[in-house]
Design goal:
About 45% of the residues lie in helices and about 20% in strands. The chain is an alpha/beta fold and about 350 residues long.
Length: about 350
């Protein structure tokens, strides 16, 4: 079992990573739960079916009294109605400000619970027990919580840090292959932006979901350092958005249900790396190396849509400024930086890429 610390002054917390840790997680949660009232465990049907029995046993063995809220799976939970359903459940169990919410699931459960925790009675403690690869390497760490609104994704949210992130990589053994691939896009992203060493370990023999503990640890280590230095995403944290500006545009263009988040980010990373090379910002050949790594995990890398259609969507992105947007580029694999680029520069570079 390995522990990392997120060193946010006044909001420090641990990320504990260990195979088989679900068996002992109850003891860790018991120390966080207020005495005399049940913890609220929020999960989804797939996660509970696969791991609920073990999780329940772990909580019961540790003497944690808890009530479950089991949601149907899917992004639709990250909504006003999903949030309101949680408030109703918390109200029913009389969850006080000293209580504890436990998010047991993927990024959807984690983002929704985090926002509910930030707002229930003006803030109650919560813990993340992530069960998808994407959530274990990214969404459970760093305190970005949100729901989607009719106007766009993640528009209502808060920075609200959990009290603990407890990661059992063995839970990934039941993850559908497509969800595993989607998470691998984020793992490859960490190598591409920050760690050539991690990138190289990923491009050797592809690890199975069971052998990912080291990669998960390294991703969490990179993210916890970045979050501690730039919690509110004004500087270094933006590097974590490599591939996301164009990836989000692709998700929006395709109605949010065609691609998993990581699949869209994979397209976005390849497009951004290509733009970087054509603008002389990235070492020649960077996008080819990245492409091979993504394809080794079965991710598609050629966005099949019209890239020109993405420009109007970029213009309405919450991060666009004036006639452009700050994008993340790779100097080379393992090194990244942000730079403002105009929409015209993006369009020209994308057109040049399509013509090649
Ligand atoms: P998800 O939570 O929808 O989970 C994907 C699917 O896997 C679901 O059907 C779920 O039921 C199932 N599942 C989860 N764990 C399982 C397991 N161990 N075994 C079997 N099935 C399992 O999706 P996700 O990819 O984890 O998260 C996507 C969400 O994360 C998006 O809403 C995205 O916006 C958000 N996100 C947030 C951040 C952040 O920093 N807060 C970062 C990246 C993504
Ligand atoms: N997922 C990007 C971030 O947490 O900043």
């Amino acid at each position: 079992m390995k522990t990392l610390s997120v060193g946010l002054p006044g909001n420090e917390y641990d990320i504990v990573i260990g195979r088989g840790m679900l068996d002992g997680v109850g003891h860790m949660l018991r120390d966080l739960a207020g005495s005399g009232e049940p913890a609220a465990v929020v999960t989804d049907e797939n996660v509970w079916r696969a791991h609920g029995e073990k999780f329940s046993a772990s909580l019961s063995d540790a003497g944690v009294d808890f009530e479950r809220v089991i949601l149907p799976p899917g992004e639709a939970n990250k909504s006003m109605s999903g949030l309101s359903g949680l408030y109703e459940a918390f109200s029913g169990m009389e969850l006080s400000r000293r209580g504890l919410i436990v998010a047991f699931g993927g990024g959807v459960v984690g983002d929704l619970c985090g926002f509910a925790a930030a707002t229930w009675k003006r803030g109650v403690g919560y813990a993340q027990v992530p069960t998808t690869l994407l959530a274990q390497v990214d969404s459970s760490v760093g305190g970005k919580t949100a729901i989607n609104l009719a106007y766009g994704k993640n528009l209502a949210g808060a920075f609200y840090q959990p009290k603990l992130v407890a990661i059992d990589p063995d839970t990934l053994s039941t993850l559908p292959a497509r969800e595993f691939r989607s998470g691998m896009a984020e793992v490859i992203k960490y190598g591409a932006i920050y760690s050539e060493g991690l990138f190289e370990t990923l491009t050797g023999d592809a690890p199975s979901p069971r052998d990912l503990s080291d990669a998960i640890y390294e991703c969490c280590s990179i993210k916890s350092g970045i979050v501690a230095r730039d919690e509110r995403d004004f500087g270094e944290r933006m590097l974590l958005n490599f591939g996301h500006t164009l990836g989000h545009a692709i998700e929006k263009k395709s109605g949010f249900d065609r691609y998993r988040h990581g699949e869209a980010v994979a397209f976005g990373m390849i497009l951004a790396a290509g733009i970087g090379e054509r603008m002389g910002l990235s070492a020649p050949g960077t996008s080819d190396v990245l492409r091979k790594a993504l394809e080794a995990y079965g991710l598609e890398t050629e966005y099949p849509g019209e890239t020109g259609d993405l420009i109007p969507i970029l213009k309405s992105d919450k991060k666009s400024e004036g006639n452009g947007v700050r994008m993340v580029f790779l100097k080379c694999i393992g090194e990244s930086f942000t730079r403002p680029v105009s929409f015209a520069e993006i369009q020209n570079a994308l057109e040049a890429g399509s013509a090649e």
